[in-house]
Design goal:
CATH topology: Rubrerythrin, domain 2
Helix content: under 10%
Number of helices: 0
Order of helices and strands: EEEE
Largest sheet: 4 strands, antiparallel
Strand content: over 45%
Radius of gyration: 12 Å
CATH superfamily: Ribosomal protein L33
Strand order of the largest sheet: 2-1-4-3
Distance between the termini: 16 Å
């Protein structure tokens, strides 16, 4: 169960390539208060693309 006051909430990173592929991870809300964007591997398109945090 995730409470809104958790320091490390679970987030979903969704691919910007439009494939619908996503990763689930945790982030530290104190260090990264804004939405996170990472370059990760998307197996549907077969290359690294940007994944953005989805709420």
């Amino acid at each position: 169960m995730t409470r809104p006051t958790d320091v490390r909430p679970k987030i979903t990173l969704r691919s910007t390539a439009g494939t619908g592929f996503g990763y689930v991870t945790k982030k530290n809300r104190r260090n990264d208060p804004d939405r996170m964007a990472l370059r990760k591997y998307d197996p549907v398109v077969g290359r690294h693309v940007e994944f953005r945090e989805e709420r």
